[in-house]
C-alpha cells in the first residue's frame, strides 16, 4: 500500500518505504476539475456577433464565464469549467464565427479554481 502521494512536474508519485513504486503524468486540476482562463481576442471581432456566438458555444459545452467588448476593438472573455471543455472554447475562439476575422488570441491568465460562477454573461 502506498504511504505518500505527491505531485512533481506534472507527475504523480506514490511512495512507500522501499521508494518510488509507480508514477504517471497527469493534467493538473483542482479537486472539482475546473480551470479558469482569461483571454483577449483581437481582429474583426466586434459588430459581427462574436460575443453572442461565444455564449452559445460556451453553454453548449457547459462552460461558464463572461465575454465583453473593449474600447480598442478587441474582446475579453473568461471561461471556467472542465479542462477539455475550456480548451475546446479556446480552439473555437481562435477561429471565431464565420463573420469574424480573428488575428490573435492571447491567454492572459490560466489558473485552477474550486468553484465556477454559474451561467454565461455577455457584458457591454
Defining key terms:
8 strands; disordered N terminus; three-stranded antiparallel β-sheet; 124 residues; Alpha-Beta Plaits; alpha+beta; 20% helix
Give structural notes.
By secondary structure, the protein is an alpha+beta fold. It folds into two domains: 1-29, no CATH class; 34-123, Alpha-Beta Plaits (2-Layer Sandwich). The protein has helices at residues 50-61, 83-95; strands spanning 4-8, 11-16, 19-25, 34-44, 64-69, 75-82, 101-113, 120-123. It is globular, with a radius of gyration of 18 Å. The N and C termini lie far apart (55 Å).
State the total count of DSSP E strands.
8
What is the alpha-carbon Rg in Å?
18 Å
Largest sheet: 5 strands, mixed
Q: How would you classify the helix and strand content by structural class?
A: alpha+beta
Low-confidence stretches: 1-31
Number of domains: 2
Q: Could you give a quick summary of the protein structure above?
A:
The protein has two helices and eight strands.
SSE topology:
Layout: E1 4-8, E2 11-16, E3 19-25, E4 34-44, H1 50-61, E5 64-69, E6 75-82, H2 83-95, E7 101-113, E8 120-123
Helix pairs in contact: 1-2
Amino acid at each position: 500500500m502506498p504511504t505518500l502521494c505527491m505531485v512533481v512536474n506534472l507527475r504523480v508519485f506514490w511512495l512507500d518505504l522501499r521508494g518510488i513504486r509507480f508514477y504517471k503524468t497527469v493534467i493538473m486540476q483542482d479537486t472539482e476539475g475546473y480551470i479558469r482562463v482569461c483571454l483577449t481576442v483581437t481582429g474583426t471581432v466586434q459588430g459581427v456577433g462574436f460575443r453572442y456566438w461565444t455564449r452559445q458555444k460556451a453553454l453548449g459545452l457547459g462552460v461558464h464565464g463572461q465575454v465583453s467588448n473593449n474600447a480598442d476593438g478587441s474582446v475579453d472573455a473568461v471561461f471556467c469549467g472542465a479542462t477539455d471543455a475550456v480548451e475546446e472554447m479556446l480552439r473555437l475562439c481562435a477561429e471565431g464565427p464565420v463573420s469574424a476575422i480573428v488575428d490573435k488570441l492571447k491567454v492572459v491568465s490560466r489558473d485552477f479554481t474550486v468553484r465556477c460562477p454559474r451561467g454565461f454573461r455577455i457584458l457591454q
